[in-house]
Amino acid sequence: MKVLIINPPIRLDDKPRNIPHGLAILANILRQKFRCQILFVDWNAHRYSIEKIKAIIKSFPCDVAMIGGLIPTYKYLIKISNIIKKYHPKTKILAGGSAAMSIPKVLLENSMIDVVCTGEGEVTIVRLIESFQQEENPDFSTIRGIAYSDNEGKILVNEPEPLIQNLDQDSLLPAYDLLPMNIYLANPVAGLGRDIDFISGRGCPYHCTFCYQPWGHKNRKHSSGFIKDAILFLKKNYQVNFISFQDDLFIADKKRLYDFCELRNRYFPDIYWSCTGRANICDEELIKIVRESGCTLISYGFESGSQRMLNSMNKKINLDQMEHVVDLNRKYGLPIPVSFILGMPDENEQSCKETVEFCIKNNLTLDSLMFATPYPGTALYDFAIKTGRIKKNGIHDFVMRLGDARDFVVNLTDSFTDEELKRKYNEMISLAKKAYNPISQNEIEEKIKSLYGPLSEMFFNLSSEDKEHQAKHGAIGLF
Ligand code: B12
Ligand code: SF4
User: Fold this and answer.
1) What percent of the chain has pLDDT over 90?
2) Which residue from 47, 73, 74, 98 has its CB within 8 A of the most atoms of ligand 1, so it is best to mutate?
3) What is the DSSP string of 187-219?
4) pLDDT for residue 447 is more than 60
5) Tally of CB atoms within 10 A around 352
6) Which of ligand 2's atoms lies nearest the C-alpha of 211?
7) Domain definitions of the chain by residue range
8) Residues contacting residue 52 through CB under 8 Å, at least 6 positions apart
9) What is the Cα–Cα distance from 274 to 272, expressed in whole angstroms?
10) pTM for this one?
11) Statement: residue 3 has pLDDT above 70
């Protein structure tokens, strides 16, 4: 069987930095379970022209094509499926990832995709390939976790595939050898050096209204031993020296976190790492332990300096916790990459003012301010549909416009017009920037040396584009 896998582009205004975990894990599963020839095309990494993509697809007649990605790749999923069907009408096209999961019907209605995977793909892809091996047009009705059109064009959504209980056992590492690793490794995600992203768990216990949680609220994770082996593998085969953990909440389980720190110090003390955090979970013990175990950065979603807004987005965090975590990060010499959101439904002049004041009081910038964006699958999206901000018959058009949350898409507030909100965005960033008091260049360099040890040399060699990326994401600035 011949399988074509295409990872569509994302964030074209930046270099490719993130590996396509979902598709690459499934590629590994496929070659373990089946005899198949796989062509993995990472369009995002190579930034091919559309002509080049057409030529690649044309030259590889295949039985099955697999595509997937985050919601802003929706337009590319449609485009790719049209090209594949044009050249190879009999190829079965399967799609997954958060774009496909969050709006399966809309995607099926507006593309040439045959089957959408509505959940985790590890079990579903095996069932689908087995069914294609048995007959050309199989009966999908018994395969859980998919949506598809029947012979009359009616879209059917099967019952979900239960979530994997043991990730170590029932998932795999991505098929790194099928990916252009040197492209990612040349473009650090959050750190310095040969930095690769890694996802060590799925699911978050919290219910923030703007966040999509396809994996539910139980935090399932790989064991610290699994992560250790994966890092040793990456170090040996790809000379990786920095890991950016991109899990929704890497620090959710303190026991696993501290086990990981111990393993790091024992087995790979030359590997440095970054992760995602949460103000209400980080205490001094945690910051101290991770700092002594090679962690150079923890990123936080602060979202607002207004307690009323934090409550309204169900953030389950208070301003004291946020201030405390800023102080702790400063005390231990860590940068403070924090992101904020403007334009949630209850936002008004007062809450914007409080956010700016919070930043000024704590000497933070608002450089990573995002517009509240109702991504499909979130409570915010339901709100936008219910209040008519997104028309039920306009979902396709709305999703076609989605990109980075730094771009304004829809106004969810009652207090601001679109123009006022866009003005407010620039005004808030500039007010916080004006008041921000950076530490001296010498101090920054000292801190970088202390955080990154031998890797700090890389800081002085970063290209201006990488420096800009790192600064934007708080990796090397904002001490
Ligand atoms: C890493 C990451 C990124 C990376 C990109 C990753 C990449 N692959 O290119 C970066 C940092 C660039 C990124 C950016 C953004 N991201 Co992001 N990101 C993630 C994160 C943390 C992990 C994604 C991941 O790799 N998961 C692990 C893999 C294993 O899961 P998976 O890809 O879903 O794959 C599984 C299944 O979906 C399925 N599957 C996947 N593909 C296929 C294909 C087939 C054929 C089949 C059968 C099955 C299948 O099988 C896989 C294994 O089970 C998720 C959070 C999350 N919980 O997933 C958010 C998430 C995907 N991001 C999200 C968002 C909103 C964004 C942004 C738009 C935010 C912003 N600030 O602007 C930007 C996009 C900007 C842009 N211009 O387009 C949302 C998506 C919401 C939605 N409805 O789609 C998520 C879910 C975060 C959240 N909780 O809200 N992101
Ligand atoms: S924003 Fe963070 S804490 Fe909130 S639900 Fe999403 S991943 Fe969890």
Assistant:
1) 90
2) 98
3) S-SSSSSSEEEE--EE--S---TT---TT-SS-
4) yes
5) 24
6) 6
7) 2-157, 176-474
8) none
9) 7
10) 0.96
11) yes
The architecture (CATH level 2) of 176-474 comes to Alpha-Beta Barrel (3.20)
Return d(Cα 356, Cα 351) in angstroms, integer: 9
> Looking at the domain covering 2-157, what would its CATH class be?
alpha beta
Q: CB neighbours (10 Å) of residue 466?
A: 21
Question: Where in 293-368 does DSSP place strands (E)?
Answer: 295-303, 338-342
What is the Å distance from ligand 2's center to 366 Cα? 20
C-alpha dihedral sign at 16, 18, 22, 26: positive
Q: How confident is the model at residue 475 (pLDDT cuts 50, 70, 90)?
A: low
The number of beta carbons lying within 10 Å of the beta carbon of residue 142 is 9
Cβ–ligand 1 contact at 122 (below 6 Å): yes
Whose Cα sits closest to atom 3 in ligand 2? 206
Q: How many CB atoms lie within 10 A of CB 89?
A: 8
Q: CA Rg, the chain, in Å? A: 23
pLDDT at 465: 78
Number of H helices and E strands in the chain, helices first, is 21, 15
Look at 343 and 477; give whichever has higher pLDDT: 343
| pLDDT tens per residue, range 232-284 | 999 999 999 999 999 988 998 999 999 999 999 999 999 999 999 999 999 99
β-pair partners for 116: 95, 147
Q: How confident is the model at residue 476 (pLDDT cuts 50, 70, 90)?
A: low
